[in-house]
Every structure is written in C-alpha cells, then in structure tokens.
Amino acid sequence: MVNKLSQLIELAKAKPGVTVSVAQAADKEVLEAVVNAEKEGIAKAVLTGNKEKIENILAEIGANAEDFVIIEAETDEECAFKAVEQIRLGNANILMKGLLSTGTFMKAVINRDTGLRTGKTISHTMFYEVPSYGKLLCLTDGGMNTFPDLEKKADILENAIGVVKKLGIEKPSVACVCGAENVDPKVQSTLDADELSKMERFADADVYGPVGLDLAISKEAVHHKGYKNENAGYADILLVPTYEVGNGIGKAMTYFAGAKSAGIVVGAKAPIVLVSRSDNAEAKMLSIALAAMM
C-alpha cells in the first residue's frame, strides 16, 4: 500500500513507455517537473508552446532541448489543442496542464469532436501527504465539478475509489464530508451523503456520512462524539459536497499543514495531470508519477 507520495516514483518506473503531453510548457516549474520525471525514468515528454522560450528555460535549468519533442504553438488555445491531439494520435498517454488556465485547458479536453471524452464523468482526485496523518488522503472533487448532484457525486466517488485501489487500498474508508453528521432535510449535501452511504454500488468501500471533517480524520473526535463507524476518523477518501469545500480543505492542508500533494483528473481517455499553476515542481512531478500509475 502506498503511504507516501515518494513511493509513487518507484512504482511509476515499473510502467514503461509512458509519455506526457504538456500544454503550454514554457514555465520553469513545469519543465523542471518533466525533466526530473525523465531523469527518474518515469516518463518522456512532448512539449507544446513557444519553442524558443521552452529551449531557453531548458538551458537555464541545465537540460538538453534535444531530449524532448517540442511542438510550436502560439496561443494557450493552440497549446491545449495540440497537446490533446498528441494523445489522440497515440504519441502520448498522459496529458498535463502547463502555464495556462484550467478553463482553457479543459475546454480542449471536453471538446466533443477533438477532445478526450469517454462518456464517463470527468473528475479531479488530489492526494495529500500530511505529516501528522500517517497515510495518503485523497480529496475529491476540488477542481472540476462545481456543484455536483447526487448522481454526479456517485460518479466522482467511483472514479476516486478506482484510483485509490490502484495504490493498494482494497476497501477504502470514504467520508462524505458535510457541515455536521446529522441528516437535515433542508441541507441537500447531508441527504446526498446519507444516500451515498447506502448505495450497493459501493460495496467495495466503506462509505459513511454525513460527517464533519473532524469525524473523517480524527479518531479522538469519533470517540468524543460517539460516532458509530469503525473506519471513521482515518479516512482514505474525502468526498466533498462542492468544489469550494474541496479547494479550501486542500489549500489549508498545503499552506497550514505543510502537506505535499499530487493530483490527476480521471474519466477521460487518458489520465490528466492538473495541479495549480502555483504548485512547485515536486508536486507536478509527483502528479506525473501518479498519472503513470493509472
């Protein structure tokens, strides 16, 4: 079972022939990530963007531009289109967002004619390594689906369980996070959490909720509140009600708790590395390793 993000690197090395296609690669942190991924034997890279800028940054960080395929593209839209095209052509099997907005990037991904749709719900899974927690914590969906309904939440959860299982967790503990642990007819998120916890669809996971964040991650809170679930307090997956909740919890773990992170989007024709433009090269490289595992 994977308990630390650093373990992803060794596991990803066992996945040969991986190539990542980067949209708008003219960014130091992005290029450091793909250069390190190549050095570690995780993945090669196809880079889209301004060729001169990319070559200059590669030289600045001590890398050889001849080690990479560089595809000239001027605008962010063209970068996104050409990066997605490399997946469709079979030249790469992981897509990665570089220095462009998520909206522009994902517009190319979900294009009905030239994108990477599969008919499944596309969702974001982010893994955090918090020093005090003792294992990886998956948070979903803090980046793609803004205000999902019950059906969409079930799809998001199915995607996350699939990713977690590939990291060696046979029956993940899933907390449906809400503002409290009581079902309130006036609060839709608590009704959804209650329904999700009863779905036969998730017999391969222990899904419980509604619960507050404290009951999801603190055994002490579970004990004091008398919450009856043996896996509560040590969740593998946090399913959040809206992207705002997920985004807030995730950034709090990063900036307040010093967490390392790696994130991917699943449900498309290829795993997608989608982390914040402010994330460092380590987070981006670990996300490539996570995508290679998929």
Q: What are its keywords?
A:
single chain, 294 residues, alpha/beta, Rossmann fold, Isopropylmalate Dehydrogenase, eleven-stranded mixed sheet
Question: Could you walk me through the main structural features you see in this protein, from its secondary elements to its overall organization?
Answer:
Helix content is 39%, strand content 18%. The protein has helices spanning 7-12, 28-39, 51-60, 76-88, 102-110, 150-165, 188-198, 213-217, 219-225, 243-255, 281-293, and strands at residues 19-23, 44-49, 69-72, 94-97, 123-129, 137-140, 173-177, 206-211, 237-239, 260-266, 272-273. Helix 2 (28-39) crosses helix 11 (281-293) and helix 4 (76-88) packs parallel to helix 5 (102-110).
Instruction: Examine the secondary-structure arrangement and name the CATH architecture of the largest domain.
Output: 3-Layer(aba) Sandwich
Broad shape? globular
Helix percentage: 25-40%
What's the CATH topology name of the largest domain?
Rossmann fold
Average pLDDT number: 93
CATH class categorisation of the largest domain: Alpha Beta
User: How would you spell out the order of helices and strands?
Assistant: HEHEHEHEHEEHEHEHHEHEEH
Beta-strand portion reads 15-25%
**Uncertain residue ranges:** none
User: Which oligomeric state applies?
Assistant: single chain
Q: Using DSSP, what is the number of strands?
A: 11
Structural class: alpha/beta
Over all CA atoms, what is the radius of gyration?
19 Å
Our count of domains comes out at: 2
The CA-CA distance between the termini, in Å, is: 15 Å
Strand order of the largest sheet: 3-2-1-4-11-10-5-6-9-7-8
The helix count comes to 11
Main beta sheet: strand number and arrangement?
A: 11 strands, mixed
